[in-house]
Design brief:
- The complex is a heterodimer of chains A (about 450) and B (about 170).
- With about 450 residues, chain A is mostly helical.
- Chain A is built from 15 helices and no strands.
- The radius of gyration of chain A is 23 Å and the shape is globular.
- With about 170 residues, chain B is an alpha+beta fold.
- The longest helix of chain B has 27 residues.
- Chain B is built from five helices and five strands, in the order E-H-E-H-H-H-E-H-E-E.
- The chains are: A mainly alpha (about 450), B alpha+beta (about 170).
- Chains A and B meet through helix 1, helix 5, helix 6, helix 7 and helix 15 of A and strand 2, helix 2, helix 3 and helix 4 of B.
Chain lengths: ~450, ~170
C-alpha cells in the first residue's frame, strides 16, 4: 500500500553542525584580516558616502535652492527617500519581532543582519527630514523642551511631530532589541578573543554575561516582551509616516487606505532589501550553510504575499479615485498613471506587482540569481512608488496656475546615492566587527535538529 | 550540616538534562545551570518561579502613557493654548500617537534596565564563568549538596557523562 509520506524538509542549517562549529565558523571572519571581497565592497561604499557628504555640505552651505524643489513641489526627493528608507527598516522588525512571535525558526539565521539593516536604514531615513529643514542645526526645535519663547510648545496635532516621536522611538527600540540579542554573542566572542583593543570593547559591551540559566530565563522573557512591543510599534511607525500625507487635503494623499498601504509597502520593500543583502552576504562571507535556499524560499514567499497586498492597495486606490465621484481624485489618479510622471508609475507597477509574480514558480524561488534580480527590481520599484506619491501628487494641485514640473538636480541625486553609501558602509562595518548571525539562537536550532536525527 | 558547592561541566545538552533530573530526584539544590543558548523549558525542569520582569515593563508603559498624555494635555490646554484651525484645545485623539510611542519607549527601556539590574549585568563587568566554554558549546551545573554526599555527587555526575567535575569550591556552613 502506498503510504502518504511528505518529503523531509531540508535542514534549516546545512552540514549537521554542532554548537561548537557554529561558534567557530561565525566568529572566524571576525578573527582574521578582512577579505579582499570586503575591501572591494567597503572602498566604493565609502567613496559614495563621501560623495553624499560633499553634496549635503554644499546644500547646507549654499541653501536648499540647490535642490530642484519649487513652490509647488516642495517635497520631492528628500521625503521620498525618507519614506523609502523607513520602509526598508520595517522588514528587519518583521523578521526579528513578528516572526519571533510566530515561532518561525528560520528567522534565526537572518534576524541579526536584518535588525542591523533596520538600524542603518532608519538612520538614513532620519537624516533626510533633518537635511530638508534647510537649517539642520535647529532641528532640536521639534523636541518639546522648555524654551525661552513662552515656553512655546510644538503643535501636538501635527503628524510631523508624531513622526519625530515615532521615528525616534523606533530607532531607540530597534537599537535596544538588537543590542539585547547581541549580548550573549558578544560574550561568546569575548571568551574566544585573546586580548587587544577589540576584545576590550567587546568585553565592555558583553555586560559580564556568563550564560547563567537564571539570566537566560529572564532574558527570554525580556526578548519576548520586546518583540511584543516592537510589533505594534512597527505598524504605528509607518502609519504615522502615512499620516504626514493623509492628514493633508491633497487628492491622492488624503485617503484612509494610506496607513495599511504604507505598512505593507514598507514590509515588502524591506523584505526585498533583506533578500538582496542576504544573497550577497552568503556568497561574500561564505555563509552558505547558514543562509540556505530554504531561507531564501521562505523570504520569497513573503515577498510574493506582500506584493499581492501592495497590488490590492494600488487597485483600491484606483477604484476609489475613479468610482468615488470626486473629480479632483479621479483627475489625480489619471494624471499619476498617464501624466508627466506616467513612466515612473509604470516602473512602479511592473517592478512591484508584475515581476514578483514570478515567485509563484518554485523553480524561480530556488534560482538564486533570479531571486536576486527580482529583489533588486522590487527595491527600484518601491523607491519609484514613493517618488510617484510625493512628486506626482504635488505637481498638479487644485489650481492649474500653480502646476509645475519637477526634476532632481545633481545635488539631490548625489544625496540619494550618498544615503546608499552610508547604509552600505555601516552594514559592512557591522559585518566586519560583529557576528552577523545570532549564534546563540542558531545553536538552539542546531541542537534541536541534532536531537531529531538519531546519532 | 555543612554544604558543598560542586560544579560539573557537560558536553551535551541531553547529559545536562539527565544530570538535573538525577540531582533533583536526590533533593540536592541546583544553584544554577550554564548554557551557550536558552534552554527550552528550563523553568519547569528546575522548578523555578516565573520571572516578574513583565511588571517592570508594564509599569514603564503606564508611566510613559500617562506622562505623555498628561504633558500634551497640559501643554495644549493649560500652558499655551494654541488655536490650530479651530480644533479643540484638548484634541485627545490627536495625542494618541505620541502617547503610544512614549509608552513603547518607556516600557522597552524599563524592562531591559530591570533585566540588567536583576541579573547584575553592567558594561565592563568581569564575567565569572563556572567552567570554560559555557558561552561556546559547553554546559555546566552548579550544585549544592551535603558535604558527606560529595562522593555520591561525583558518581551521579560520572553516570551522566560529565566532562569535568570541579573539586568542592567552598564550604557553606548552614
Amino acid at each position: 500500500m502506498a503510504s502518504l509520506v511528505l518529503p523531509e524538509p531540508a535542514a534549516l542549517i546545512a552540514g549537521h553542525k554542532t554548537p561548537g562549529q557554529v561558534t567557530a565558523e561565525i566568529c572566524a571572519p571576525l578573527e582574521r584580516r578582512a577579505s579582499g571581497w570586503w575591501w572591494l565592497a567597503f572602498v566604493p561604499a565609502c567613496c559614495v558616502l563621501l560623495l553624499g557628504v560633499a553634496a549635503v555640505s554644499y546644500q547646507i552651505s549654499v541653501g536648499i535652492g540647490t535642490w530642484g524643489l519649487n513652490r509647488t513641489v516642495g517635497w520631492a526627493f528628500a521625503i521620498a527617500n525618507f519614506v523609502f528608507w523607513v520602509g526598508i527598516g520595517h522588514a528587519g522588525t518583521l523578521i526579528s519581532a513578528i516572526l519571533f512571535l510566530f515561532r518561525q525558526k528560520w528567522r534565526t539565521s537572518i534576524n541579526r543582519s536584518a535588525e542591523a539593516m533596520t538600524l542603518f536604514a532608519v538612520t538614513c531615513a532620519g537624516l533626510f527630514p533633518v537635511i530638508h529643514m534647510g537649517r539642520p542645526w535647529l532641528f532640536y526645535w521639534i523636541i518639546p523642551y522648555p524654551n525661552g519663547r513662552g515656553p512655546l510648545w510644538v503643535n501636538f496635532l501635527s503628524p510631523l511631530v508624531w513622526d519625530f516621536f515615532a521615528i525616534g522611538t523606533y530607532l531607540l527600540i530597534s537599537l535596544l532589541f538588537w543590542y539585547v540579542g547581541l549580548v550573549p554573542d558578544l560574550a561568546t566572542l569575548r571568551d574566544r578573543l585573546r586580548g587587544g583593543w577589540y576584545r576590550g570593547v567587546v568585553a565592555f559591551f558583553a555586560l559580564g554575561w556568563n550564560g547563567s540559566g537564571r539570566a537566560w530565563q529572564r532574558y527570554e522573557v525580556v526578548y519576548l516582551l520586546l518583540a511584543g512591543l516592537a510589533t505594534p510599534l512597527v505598524v504605528s511607525v509607518h502609519s504615522v509616516v502615512s499620516a504626514d500625507f493623509a492628514a493633508t487635503l491633497l487628492p491622492g494623499w488624503h485617503a484612509t487606505i494610506f496607513p495599511p498601504y504604507f505598512v505593507t509597502g514598507a514590509i515588502f520593500s524591506g523584505l526585498a532589501m533583506v533578500l538582496t543583502l542576504m544573497l550577497l552576504a552568503r556568497k561574500v562571507m561564505r555563509l552558505e550553510d547558514y543562509l540556505t535556499p530554504r531561507h531564501v524560499e521562505a523570504l520569497t514567499k513573503l515577498v510574493l504575499a506582500t506584493s499581492c497586498l501592495v497590488g490590492l492597495a494600488y487597485s483600491i486606490e484606483a477604484f476609489t479615485a475613479l468610482y468615488g465621484g470626486n473629480r479632483y481624485e479621479s483627475f489625480m489618479f489619471l494624471n499619476r498613471a498617464l501624466g508627466p510622471l506616467g513612466w515612473a508609475y509604470a516602473i512602479m507597477v511592473v517592478c512591484n506587482i508584475i515581476v514578483p509574480q514570478l515567485f509563484w514558480f518554485p523553480r524561480v524561488r530556488r534560482n538564486l540569481p533570479t531571486v536576486f534580480v527580482v529583489a533588486v527590481l522590487v527595491n527600484v520599484g518601491m523607491w519609484f512608488e514613493r517618488f510617484v506619491i510625493v512628486a506626482g501628487t504635488l505637481q498638479r494641485d487644485f489650481l492649474p496656475s500653480s502646476w509645475s514640473g519637477y526634476a532632481p538636480t545633481l545635488i539631490e541625486l548625489a544625496t540619494l546615492l550618498g544615503s546608499f553609501g552610508l547604509f552600505f558602509t555601516c552594514f559592512l562595518i557591522f559585518c566586519r566587527f560583529l557576528p552577523v548571525i545570532a549564534m546563540a539562537e542558531v545553536k538552539a536550532v542546531v541542537q534541536e535538529e541534532r536531537a531529531e536525527v538519531p546519532r | 550540616m555543612s554544604q558543598t558547592v560542586v560544579v560539573a561541566g557537560f558536553a551535551e545538552e541531553a547529559h545536562l538534562r539527565r544530570a538535573v533530573g538525577a540531582v533533583r530526584q536526590r533533593g540536592w539544590t541546583v544553584l544554577d545551570v550554564y548554557a551557550p543558548y536558552a534552554l527550552h523549558d528550563l523553568e519547569r525542569l528546575l522548578g523555578w518561579r516565573r520571572s516578574r520582569l513583565p511588571v517592570a515593563g508594564f509599569s514603564g508603559g503606564v508611566v510613559g502613557l500617562t506622562a505623555a498624555f498628561g504633558f500634551q494635555f497640559w501643554a495644549s490646554v493649560r500652558s499655551w493654548p494654541l488655536n490650530v484651525g479651530g480644533r479643540p484645545w484638548n484634541s485627545l485623539p490627536a495625542f494618541v500617537p505620541v502617547a503610544f510611542e512614549s509608552m513603547v519607549l518607556l516600557a522597552g527601556f524599563s524592562v531591559v534596565f530591570a533585566l540588567l539590574l536583576r541579573c547584575r549585568l553592567y558594561p565592563g563587568k568581569q564575567p565569572r564563568l563556572p567552567s570554560p566554554g559555557v558561552t561556546d558549546d559547553r554546559f555546566a551545573l552548579v550544585l549544592q549538596a551535603p558535604s558527606e554526599a560529595v562522593e555520591e555527587v561525583r558518581r551521579v555526575f560520572h553516570e551522566c557523562q560529565a566532562v569535568g567535575v570541579d573539586a568542592p569550591r567552598e564550604e557553606i556552613q548552614s
